[in-house]
């Protein structure tokens, strides 16, 4: 087996396209997972059972089924109900939704870790409920969970190749296409493998630095 | 026909401010307070003493609406605090402040904002006015040059003094002090008590205080209530309670703590 720098050069334009798609899926998927997870976590704290129960069932269901199944479902079944989106949009929504059911548990743990005394001090100062959440509880809770959320971002990065299953050409999709067209597998797969490491390793270093700063 | 002022200001600055009527509080099978009656007059400093678990802290927590009685009524300035609807509770609560054993400062806010947060969002005070007042209060508690620090950068005693300033910033009629020196290192206790002595002697704020610092209780109190088994078993001026208690249970308690 011979390493062919020419193949690397030929693959690079496709690689950049794939990288862009991977990063788009990652960034948008993370945003959805962060926002929606917080929404789930807050809904699970409402006093009415009629909100908590459906949210609990739906999120448990999503958490307990594979992301790949959800991708196929959103991509092939929803259009039959008249809801058709582009493959990338579907992929971003699926990843974001799937991971929101994990981030919700992270937020829940963060909220529960805020000492009761903080709620009591807010009551003693007559802070309204909304202000208690936005100024006192959530800033403390989110600070605590940033490292855990970051770990899910790295997990999501490593799950983005699944989007290939619904025709999205992420890094792996581009590598596979190139390999099949040129019968050269080693170079493109090695390039994207290195790319995954180059994204996730600095990301985990950054996370550890954040953890040291935030969790005291 | 009522006098016009009678409705606008149900209680004058003197007279009864807080009244508990037959208040009962249970935790599971354990009755912490048993049909308790007592009153506090406006501007007075009342100290609750007694063994742990006798329900002293529970009384403060009920007045701060952190916990509800199971039976009975609580009245503050002539208005029902319990039983009452949420709106009335929120209204009365604004006139009550509390300082906690564990300080409970907001660790995500600097000292200055810990103090200005409630006056700005609850009382609608302008930011400038609230900060001006916060600086005055921090000077009063001897922390005028710490306003840009975070609570974690302060000692326990300093944090507690910030917490006192934070409670005072809401201009409460009633200040509840819940074992405010119990979590402090011994050498930091005096600084906090000095600040409270100062406030007790220089303001007309009504104070209700749970403490194990008997000298402090003697200094600042107009009345001392001795609690045992969910009841007030003896009440009176501090000179009387500390020098010639009538109840054997009071004598026993005081000889154990003094």
From TrEMBL, chain A:
Family annotation (PROSITE patterns): ABC_TM1
Compartment list: Cell membrane
Its membrane topology: Multi-pass membrane protein
Predominant place of localization: membrane
ABC transmembrane type-1 domain: residues covered: 19-207
Pfam family, one: BPD_transp_1
Keywords of the record: Amino-acid transport, Cell membrane, Membrane, Transmembrane, Transmembrane helix, Transport
InterPro entries in the cross-refs: AA_ABC_transptr_permease_3TM (IPR010065), ArtM/GltK/GlnP/TcyL/YhdX-like (IPR043429), Ectoine_EhuD (IPR014341), MetI-like (IPR000515), MetI-like_sf (IPR035906)
Transmembrane segments: 20-43, 81-99, 189-210
Family that this chain belongs to: Belongs to the binding-protein-dependent transport system permease family.
The protein's name in its UniProt record: Ectoine/hydroxyectoine ABC transporter permease subunit EhuD
Protein's organism: Streptomyces lannensis
Lineage: Bacteria, Bacillati, Actinomycetota, Actinomycetes, Kitasatosporales
């Amino acid at each position: 087996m011979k390493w062919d720098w020419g193949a690397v050069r030929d693959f690079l334009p496709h690689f950049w396209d794939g990288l862009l798609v991977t990063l788009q899926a990652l960034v948008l998927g993370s945003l959805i997972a962060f926002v929606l997870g917080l929404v789930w976590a807050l809904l699970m704290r409402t006093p009415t059972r009629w909100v908590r129960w459906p949210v609990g069932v739906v999120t448990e269901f999503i958490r307990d089924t594979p992301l790949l199944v959800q991708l196929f479902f959103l991509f092939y079944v929803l259009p039959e109900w008249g809801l058709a989106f582009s493959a990338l949009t579907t992929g971003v929504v699926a990843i974001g939704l799937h991971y929101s059911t994990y981030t919700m548990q992270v937020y829940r743990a963060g909220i529960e870790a805020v000492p009761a005394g903080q709620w009591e001090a807010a009551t003693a100062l007559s802070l309204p409920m909304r202000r208690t959440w936005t100024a006192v509880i959530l800033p403390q809770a989110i600070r605590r969970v940033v490292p855990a959320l970051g770990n899910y971002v790295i997990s999501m990065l490593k799950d983005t190749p699944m989007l290939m299953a619904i025709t999205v050409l992420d890094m792996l999709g581009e590598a596979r296409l190139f390999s099949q067209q040129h019968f050269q597998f080693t170079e493109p797969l090695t390039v994207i493998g290195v790319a995954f490491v180059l994204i996730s390793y600095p990301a985990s270093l950054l996370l550890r630095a954040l953890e040291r700063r935030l969790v005291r | 026909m009522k006098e016009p002022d009678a409705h606008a200001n149900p209680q004058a600055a003197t007279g009864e401010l807080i009244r508990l009527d037959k208040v009962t509080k249970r935790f599971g099978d354990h009755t912490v307070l048993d049909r308790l009656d007592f009153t506090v007059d406006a501007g007075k400093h009342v100290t609750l003493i007694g063994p742990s678990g006798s329900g002293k802290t529970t009384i403060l927590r009920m007045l701060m609406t952190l916990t509800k009685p199971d039976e009975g009524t609580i009245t503050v300035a002539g208005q029902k605090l319990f039983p009452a609807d949420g709106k009335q509770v929120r209204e009365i609560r604004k006139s009550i402040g509390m300082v906690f054993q564990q300080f409970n400062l907001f660790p995500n806010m600097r000292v200055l904002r810990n103090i200005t947060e409630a006056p700005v969002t609850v009382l609608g005070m302008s930011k400038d006015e609230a900060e001006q007042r916060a600086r005055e209060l921090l000077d009063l508690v001897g922390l005028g040059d710490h306003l840009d620090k975070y609570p974690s950068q302060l000692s326990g005693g300093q944090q507690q003094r910030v917490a006192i300033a934070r409670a005072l910033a809401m201009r409460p009629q009633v200040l509840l002090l819940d074992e405010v020196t119990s979590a402090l290192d011994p050498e930091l206790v005096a600084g906090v008590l000095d600040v409270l002595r100062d406030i007790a002697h220089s303001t007309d704020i009504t104070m209700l205080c749970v403490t194990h610092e008997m000298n402090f209780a003697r200094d600042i109190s107009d009345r001392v209530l001795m609690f045992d088994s969910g009841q007030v078993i003896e009440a009176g001026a501090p000179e009387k309670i500390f020098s010639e208690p009538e109840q054997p249970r009071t004598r026993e308690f005081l000889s154990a703590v003094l």
